[in-house]
Task: structure prediction
Amino acid sequence: MSQEGQFLVSLDKGRWVVKRKTAQARLSRSLQAINHWCRMHRHWPVADQQAALSRKLKGHYAYYGIVGNSQSLARFLYEVRRRWYKWLSRRNRERMNWDHFGRLYKRYPLPPPRVVHGIARCVATP
Result:
């Protein structure tokens, strides 16, 4: 296992493929940074929070969005949503429930995970 991440070898449509996965330490460090940011900016309007979190997620996807890493990207989005809910629910005395957060999330969605770097592009470029 390298510091860059784990290398997984698996079958994909009948062919063996080497896939890379984000290292757990890097994922944890990114989530800690998101948690700290949400805590420090929970007083911002929800639209501004959503815009900033969207930019952070797009940057994360741009760096870690490689073929074979979609599970880690989906996990990252899931954890970001959980932390955003946690800090939004601490804005007032009455806690926000998940139903209310679901309605809020429909209005202010975060970008879905997407693979940005493909293997074909790396092979084609000399």
The CA atoms of residues 76 and 94 lie 27 Å apart. The chain has one domain: 23-124. Residues 23-124 form one domain.
